[in-house]
Amino acid sequence: MVTGWPNMSNPADDTFFFILGISLTLLALNTGVMIYFVFRYSRKRHPKAEEVGENTLLEIIWTVIPTLLVLAMFYVGWKGFVYMRTAPPDAMVIHVTARQWSWTFDYANGKETNVLKVPVRKPIKLLITSADVLHSLFIPAYHIKEDAVPGRETHLWFLPDQLGSYDLFCTEYCGVGHSSMITKVDVVPQKEFDDWYAGKKEEAAGTEEKPGSKKRAGKHEAGQSAREGAELFQTKGCTACHTADGTPKIGPTFKGVFGKKETVIHNGQERQITVDEAFIKQTLLHPEIDRVKGFPPIMPSQQGQLTDKEIEELIEYIKELK
Amino acid sequence: MEASFYHAKTRYPGIFGWIFTTDHKRVGLLYLFSSLSFFAVGVSLGLTMRLELIRSGMHFYSAQTYNAIFTLHGVIMIFLFIIPGIPSSLGNFIMPLQIGARDVAFPKINILSWWLFIMGGAIAVTSLFTGGGPPDTGWTFYVPYSIRTGTNISLAVFGVFLIGLSSTLTGMNFLTTIHRLRAPGMTWKRMTLFTWSIYATSWIQLLATPVLAITLLLLIIERNFGVGFFDPAKGGDPILFEHMFWIYSHPAVYIMILPAMGTVTDIIPVFTRRNIFGYSFIAASSLAIAFVGYLVWGHHMFTSGMSDTARIIFSLLTFIVAVPSGVKVFNWIASLYKGSIRMNAPLLYTLAFIFLFSIGGLTGLVQGALATAVHVHGTYFVVGHFHYVMFGGAGFGFFAGLHYWFPKITGKLYEEHLAKLACFFLFIGFNMLYFSMFVLGWEGMPRRYYDYLPKFNGPNLVATIGSWILAMGLIIMFYNLVHSLFAGNEAGDNPWEAASLEWQTTSPPPVENFAVQPVVTKGPYEFR
Ligand code: HEM
Ligand SMILES: [Cu+2]
Question: Is the CATH code 1.10.760.10 the one for domain A220-320?
Fold first, then answer.
């Protein structure tokens, strides 16, 4: 199946120790000679300096040898890299979407998760993109990373050779939630994976509460779109900053916000507004116009991210959160 | 004897005699004072970051504040401290003296550069308190985040734009000066290697900085008028921004390091009392670095989604550009051979420089090799690496130069024991602070993290303690310099018995530098 390195992190490790070995030798030699000269030729021991003159041969030697050494380093790094970039044809493909500040993993059968669950000893190929800004998918255990670029698809592969749970970080700075954009790679036995994979399609994680469906049974239309709105609240990443339960997070909570009187910052001046449909729509499309006082100015514009219908649905949802 | 330039009558009284001056020495000191002030701010910000990072889960301020602080720290250290640091301050003061000129070629443009620099700095500072609040993108301003964030990016970026303009003008000014204003007998091979390094640096400033300027302007246009250069939502390409940014910012690392290399190259012969080893090879390697340095920007983008072929080519070129730096190190060490070494503070800082810069350079090889780059990119390994190069390298080179030329600039001697004590603290603190970062990076801790997993606790604590020791060293060093400014012993004109031209006039020099036009008959490091 996979030839070459038995373990994914080996190409990086091999290159690292190769370079480290040469580097430490050079550093030790240089520093040793330097310290020796400093003592041997100190003014006390060697009161009269001697001119040595230039030595072209020496210059050539210490240009050519380092050149050969670095070329060797380049070659080793290159060889490892080619292995790291060439996924075996039988690799299982998983689509990854990064967004502020969560990861979504989409499997071939339509399953969607926030934790990367994979079977052990099966090569995995990740096709990565981003829904908003740059991110970078980093799994230290396998020594791999690749940026998630909006509008583009990048790729990575790895071989999870041991069972366990490993960290997955975002390593391209992406805003206030960057350092909490962490999830796990769960490497499970094939059997366990198959059972899970065949199980029912999970909904986007964390949808315990669906307040949209509680009240207003009569107004079917609004209830319907509020339910859609609740979905969007999860899938469009609003949960990274907002909650529906009254506790402020990075941004204000949505609970009770509709109809509320608030102070906002407008062009550096404070002013009073009431949160209504128009205001929510404006905040979604042009958050920079009015910033709610007391929060960092980081609400991302949803222009191009949400359709008009979706905006309506979100507004219905927020209205419901009394 | 002519009065020193401090005492000479200026066109305007008092402080105006400084800010409207055209004397390269005064301009140099304006730069020195302003960039060191920015440095103090940058260091304070760095210390608060280390305090925040002392332990997992410890919070002194919010994530947004942390992001603003590391952005500000990076912007200040890069654009307001280390890029103008050596070339515009010491370069301005020393280089014309070293070639026997009365001033730079365009004295009025010289002071204009400082004004632009200060205006840029002031605008960048203003951006903190106006509009959407302090920028939070990191000093790299990567799109699309920098386009979408509500913080005050446009103003800050405009400030950096002005600073870039100032840097371009300085480069142009110095190039003309070195070409046109050398004293009779000052052939290219009799120039000091400091001047050579300023020469190479100036080419980079002149040729690379406009790329930054255009990139930043496009960013401002995109933010304010919605033109889609970079944001894919508007039909742009974010990787294009990365290319344009690094086409400047990689050569910019040589703007930072080359003058420091030049500084220590001037110091070594003076304290070993023998000619530098491999003069022409050191000069040539500066030029080689300046030109090959343009071709390696892609190594900042090894995981960006750029094509694999491009990554391989950039990796190869990166390894090639490492060689000239190695050649310099070997020549410096060989220059100690059979000398008669006086271990004064400038040389001590120089040796620390060589060691720290070597570590920075060698860890650069880990980042240049593709297989390892993929692992360490975007982690604390990189943060460790660039502090070793920029702070351990350029910063320590700057400190070495400050001590070496202190008597030239002030006419006073600093206190030798204190200077060495400071160097000791700096060295210990530095390695605790930044070596820990290599460990953290290899273990996988990403950079620009407000908080981290508990498994990274150990090295982070060591780093924070190191930052305090480092700070002690800085306090002792600057205390010594400032105190000696007022209370130091008289230095005499040439306390180090150096042979280069800047020491052949009075210390501090008169307004037009030399009482009589010097004629040069020998190399800068010939002590007999
Ligand atoms: C006491 C001195 C210093 C301390 C404690 C310090 C600390 C730090 C820390 C902890 C970071 C990492 C922030 C993060 O990734 O979350 C950082 C970033 C940085 N430092 Fe320093 N630093 C110091 C001095 C310097 C100097 C002298 C320079 C330049 C010459 C410098 C340039 C930078 C740059 C460019 C960044 C990157 C900022 C970014 O990611 O946008 N620092 N520093
Ligand atoms: Cu991210």
Answer: yes
